[in-house]
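sry for the spam today, last one i promise. C-alpha cells for design, 240 residues
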C-alpha cells in the first residue's frame, strides 16, 4: 500500500482569497499531522526563484513553517532525501519538468512520497507534474523535457485551471473540454480530472477525496464527462 500523502491544488491564487488562503486549512492539517516544521520548496516553474520563495514564505511563515528553496541547496537530490515535506509551485509545467529531469529529481521525489510517505503539496504546474504525464497541461512548451512522463504519484492526469464554456463569450475556439476529449482520442490517454480554481484533490494512501471550494469535472475515456462535488470519494481512480 502506498504511503503517499498528497495535496494537489488547481492554483495558488483564487479570486477573493490571498495567496494559498483557500487551502490553508488543508495545508496546515497535512503538515501539522506529520510534525513538519520546514518545507522544501521547488520554484523551478518560474525563472526568478528567489522572488518566488519570498512569495511562498509569507503565508508559510504566518502558519509557523520555515521554507527552504531547493535552488539554494548545493545537492538537490540530497535536499529531497532529507526533506520532511515538499511543495512544488506553479508556473510553466514544461520548464518545471525539464528541471526535475535535469537534476535527477523525478525518481528522488517519487521515492520520498510513495515509499517514505512525506507530504507533497502541488499547485498548478506542481500538480501537473504529480500525475502520469503533463499531456493535459495548459502551458506552452517553452522548453523541452526529455519526456512528458511525470512523477506518477497518481495514475491519472489532472487539468488545473479547468474552465467551463462561457455561453456569452464571442470566442469560438475549442473549449477546455474539447481539448481534453481530443487528448483522450489517443490510444494511450489517461483519465483526466479537471480541477476548477479553488478545487483540490487530497490523496492519502489509496484514498482520494475532492476538497476545496468548487466542483471538478471528470473525464474517463469513452465515457461522458461528469461533475464531481466537493467531498466526493475518488479513490477508485487510484487503481492502476
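last one done:
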Amino acid at each position: 500500500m502506498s504511503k503517499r500523502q498528497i495535496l494537489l491544488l488547481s492554483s495558488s491564487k483564487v479570486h477573493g482569497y490571498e495567496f494559498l488562503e483557500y487551502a490553508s486549512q488543508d495545508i496546515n492539517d497535512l503538515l501539522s499531522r506529520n510534525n513538519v516544521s520546514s518545507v522544501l520548496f521547488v520554484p523551478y516553474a518560474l525563472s526568478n526563484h528567489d522572488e518566488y520563495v519570498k512569495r511562498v514564505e509569507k503565508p508559510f511563515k504566518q502558519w509557523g513553517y520555515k521554507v527552504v528553496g531547493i535552488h539554494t541547496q548545493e545537492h538537490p537530490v540530497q535536499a529531497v532525501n532529507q526533506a520532511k515535506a515538499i511543495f512544488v509551485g506553479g508556473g510553466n509545467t514544461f520548464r518545471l519538468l525539464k528541471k526535475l529531469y535535469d537534476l535527477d529529481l523525478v525518481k528522488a521525489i517519487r521515492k520520498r512520497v510513495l515509499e517514505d510517505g512525506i507530504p507533497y503539496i502541488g499547485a498548478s504546474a506542481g500538480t501537473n507534474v504529480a500525475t502520469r504525464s503533463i499531456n493535459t497541461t495548459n502551458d506552452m512548451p517553452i522548453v523541452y523535457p526529455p519526456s512528458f512522463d511525470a512523477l506518477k504519484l497518481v495514475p491519472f492526469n489532472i487539468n488545473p485551471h479547468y474552465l467551463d464554456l462561457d455561453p456569452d463569450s464571442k470566442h469560438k475556439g475549442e473549449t477546455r473540454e474539447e481539448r481534453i476529449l481530443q487528448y483522450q482520442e489517443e490510444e494511450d490517454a489517461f483519465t483526466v480530472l479537471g480541477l476548477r480554481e479553488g478545487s483540490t484533490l487530497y490523496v492519502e494512501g489509496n484514498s482520494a477525496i475532492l476538497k476545496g471550494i468548487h466542483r471538478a469535472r471528470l473525464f474517463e475515456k469513452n465515457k461522458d464527462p461528469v461533475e464531481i462535488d466537493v467531498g466526493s470519494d475518488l479513490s477508485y481512480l487510484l487503481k492502476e
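The mean pLDDT is 95. ok im logging off now
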